[in-house]
Amino acid sequence: PPAVMQAMQRPMIYHRGATFRGFFKGLLKQLERVHQTEGSVLVLPGTGSAGWEIALVNTLSPGDQVLAVVAGDFGERWARVAERFGLRVSRVEVPWGRAATIEVVRPALEANPDVKAVLYTYNETSTGVANPLPEVGELVRQHGGLLLVDGVSAVAGMPLEMDSWGVDLIFSGSQKAWMCPPGLVIVGVGPRAWAAGERAGFPRAFWDLREYREQAGTGDMPSTAPLTLLYALQAACDLIEAEGLEQVFARHRALAELVRTGAIRLGYRLLADPAFASPTVTALLPPDGLEADTVVQELRARHGIEVNGGQGRLRGKILRVGHMGWVHEPELHRLLAALEDVTGALRGKR
Which GO terms describe its molecular function (predicted)? Predict the structure, then answer.
């Protein structure tokens, strides 16, 4: 957004001074409101993927058993990170495009009563599925384990009530619905996660959330603050709060419906179960006879529009349209017109 771009032009200030401290404390309060939490929300330099490691090393110990709910490529990658850290990973494999519901998670918890944490992806970017976090949060809380959530493409674009839903830790990336350049990982931490952190046995240095919490108390960061990105994030929070959280979420739902309806009219099919289709990203199967990657390439070549293809098992099979953050109807109408043009042209070549 222009306001975010403008904020990034602000001059540098001393990152240990009173001006920065006042600014940073205010930003953290804004982030707490978006997360709907009385707990801590911290900002670290890094990308959303850093959140996988941050969540694990700050709450667990080598050899702990975790339940990884794998419903797409990002859930798969988080499970692999957990395995590399020496955790005992039990996987719940969900068909890609289906949702990780309590009907899937409950039997796995019952079969693995010693699970210390559940690794759960709120919005699976690779499949366009929004998983039912509130009901799974209640289930995990009843079990007694921690609920660690990848919210990279969800937070600030989809409802989040961190405290009432029983989310112990959730992380997101500045480049998604936060409307900023990449480079910040935003981490919400609840009291049960802090308590687990006191027992956690993994070595921690740069990703030690205890240091970030201690420094945040005085409006500081443990290392040099990425000022330009923090200015951007504050401007984005201002925009979100000015629009209103409920209106932000309603806009994302409306834009998702616009994309889905328009694409289906052109012969594309949703990969996701419609009941769990994401408000922030749509994954589309192309019409019979068309190659997804060719559609992606032609949108770029003919119209200068970037959409993405599939990841992991879905590489070459789908295209994905992001409609999160600073996106409005005119851009998506242009996309759908371009998609109609490309689809017609490719069908004519058959």
Answer: alanine-glyoxylate transaminase activity; L-serine-pyruvate transaminase activity
pLDDT tier for residue 44 given thresholds of 50, 70 and 90: very high
- For 310, the domain range is 245-348
pLDDT by residue (tens digit) across 158-172? 999 999 999 999 999
CATH assignment of the domain containing 176: 3.40.640.10
pLDDT of res. 180: 98
Side-chain-side CA neighbours of 188 within 13 Å: the count stands at 30
Q: Which residues of 163-172 are buried (b: 16+ CB within 10 A; e: fewer)?
A: eebbbbbbbb
**What is d(CA 194, CA 77) in angstroms, rounded to the nearest whole number?**
25
Beta strand 88-93 pairing with 65-70: parallel
pLDDT for 13 equals: 96
SS3 227: helix
Please name which of 24, 50, 349, 71 lies closest in space to residue 182, comparing C-alpha atoms: 50
For the chain, give the mean pLDDT: 97
Q: Are residues 111 and 192 in the same domain?
A: yes
Name the domain boundary from 194, 211, 243: 243
Total structural domains within the chain: 2
Domain identity same for 250 and 215: no
pLDDT digit string (tens) for 216-233? 999 999 999 999 999 999
> Is 320 assigned to a binding site?
yes
**Same-domain pairing of 127 and 137:** yes
Q: Six-digit token pair at 37?
A: 């939490």
Q: Which of the 8 DSSP states describes residue 202?
A: S
Question: What phi and psi, each to the nearest 5 degrees, are found at residue 175?
Answer: -85, 0
- Per the CB < 8 A criterion, the answer to whether 62 and 85 are in contact is yes
Instruction: Tell me if the pTM is above 0.90.
Output: yes
Question: What burial class does residue 273 get, using C-beta atoms within 10 Å of its C-beta: 0-12 exposed, 13-18 middle, 19+ buried?
Answer: middle
Residue 14 and residue 31: Cα distance in Å, rounded? 22
**Bridge partner residues of 65 (DSSP):** 88
| Domain boundary pick from 224, 243, 262 | 243
